Amino acid sequence: MSGAMIAFFILGIITIGGALLMLSLRKVVHMVVALAFTFLSIAGLFVLLEAEFLAVAQALIYGGAVTIIMLFGIMLTQHDDRDESRRPLHKLLAGLVSALFFLGLIILINRVPWPNQAGEPLFMENTANIGKELFSKYVIPFELASILILVALVGAVILAKQDKESPAKKEGDKA
Amino acid sequence: MIPVSWYLGLAALLFCLGLYGALTKRNTVIVLICIELMLNATNINLVAFSKLGLYPDIAGQVFTVFSITVAAAEVAVGIAILLAFYRNRRTVNIDEANVLKR
Q1: Chain A residues with CB inside 8 Å of B96's CB?
Q2: Residues B14-50: tens digit of each pLDDT
Q3: Residues of chain A with pLDDT under 70
Q4: What is the C-alpha separation between B26 and B13, in angstroms, rounded?
Q5: Which of A28, A140, B30, B55 would bridge with B25, disulfide CB 3.0–4.6 Å?
Q6: What are residue A153's DSSP bridge partners?
Q7: Which residues from chain A sit within 8 angstroms of residue B89, using beta carbons?
Q8: Is A57:A131 a contact under the CB 8 Å cutoff?
Q9: 3-state DSSP call for residue A124?
Q10: A84, closest residue in chain B (CA to CA)
Q11: ipTM of the complex model
């Protein structure tokens, strides 16, 4: 049992525990806080996988931005909302589908002979390597991603904007 | 040295928990969060294969950068749609978002 395995187990337990807590808690704010633990321990898993840049990006974007924007979404709508459950049959069917999917995945994972090489320290300069790849091989996807972010920004502002005129008039303006 | 199948198993469990949540929860924010959970599980897979795959390559991490970017954009638009929906219908329950069905 090496140190990396112990770290993997601890991080995995926090990841799964946060997700299970999210599924079992009743108040939505508590659910989001439980999810923050999951996101942060996934960042820890990225460190274990020698992806330090992604670990920091995960902690900043998911642990910070996504969690906070979700809290904003909750606070601006029904902030004391409790997630009342659906019908038991619906829950049973959803659980059955998820469990069957999980079993299938596990069987598939066990059947494949994975390469068990001792991965050489490929990415000594992780961030520099990602930057080189990003600006040499993946320039066009990078630019497309920036356009996507711009479109998402404008779209989010337009969707969330409080419009004063009536819906009927707005339809007339669009036509 | 952690086998790659452990990472895959963890990611599969996380994905299925997210799937269960997305299918059963009614609050739209929670459904969005469950979708994020599923995306995160796939990110773990990408990074694990980037280090422990048959041909270790940094491309998996670059893919994850794009995946995180798209997920963040998706969350922003999703919350904006949720706010517009809440303003019009005064509810956040996703099963009441059925205007297009009627």
Answers
A1: none
A2: 999 999 999 888 888 889 999 999 999 999 999 998 8
A3: 1, 79-85, 116-123, 164-175
A4: 21
A5: B30
A6: none
A7: none
A8: no
A9: coil
A10: B26
A11: 0.89
Helix, coil or strand: residue B25: coil
CB contact under 8 A, A129 and B58: yes
8 Å CB contact between B29 and A73: yes
The tokens for A142 are 């990078």
Please tell me the distance in Å from B32's CA to the nearest CA on chain A.
9
Cα separation, B47 vs B27, whole angstroms:
31
Contacts with A39 from chain B: Cβ below 8 Å: 40
Distance CA A97, CA A91 (A): 10
Residues 6 or more apart in contact with residue A168 via CB below 8 angstroms: none
Locate tokens 């979404």: which residue?
Answer: A73
Comparing CA positions, the residue from A1, A65, A13, A66 lying closest to residue A44 is A13
